[in-house]
Amino acid sequence: MLEVTDLRVNYGAIKALHGVTLRVNRGEIVTLIGCNGAGKSTTLRAISGIVRAAGGSITYEGRDLAGLKPHDIVRLGLVQAPEGRGIFSNMTVAENLELGAFIRSDRDGISADREKALTLFPRLRERLDQSAGTLSGGEQQMLAIARALLTRPKLLLLDEPSLGLAPQIVQIIFRIIREINEQGATILLVEQNAHMALKVAHRAYVLDVGRIVMEGKASDLAASEDVQDAYMGRKRAG
Length: 238
Hints:
Strand order of the largest sheet: 6-7-8-3-9-10
């Protein structure tokens, strides 16, 4: 479904990505883990067309995305819920959800998808008329994902959905990520919480200073001592 080959991104003189290659197959949850500054968010931003690639290629459903504007990429069904949530804080929850469907005109479909999103996130149903800026961090993250779902994504890019959230809310968010996948969306997940990401994903890539250094089944990477030491807080004996 998505093929990223030798992707390079520069910020001025700084080389952020040094030839990243990854793939996402239809129906999968694929996670990209790594430390702060590894280039995870840059990878998603390049796929979304928000930052320009300096080299390499990004192919989605057989189509080269080079030169496409972010809104055109969204229209193809490739949708990102950004790091930091990016909600419209002065608008209500309902208005934020409405904006998620801005490219659509199928009113019945929008209404059905809104109902699905509110079933996934019942807290949002209770707060539809509330200003989004007054929601808790966890509720704002729920809104960011729900808004992305109103676009009816085929491939959903999630950037650090657990960032800054309490452990109980993190559990809820990851349970819902699995449900979204079971309902038909393919997911590329960028996440610092390697333990939770590897638990929910089918396959995984480890990004380190702009390079993929490991890849494989999520369960295999979760069992790797190197991954446990570097990204899951495990301490070696002695």
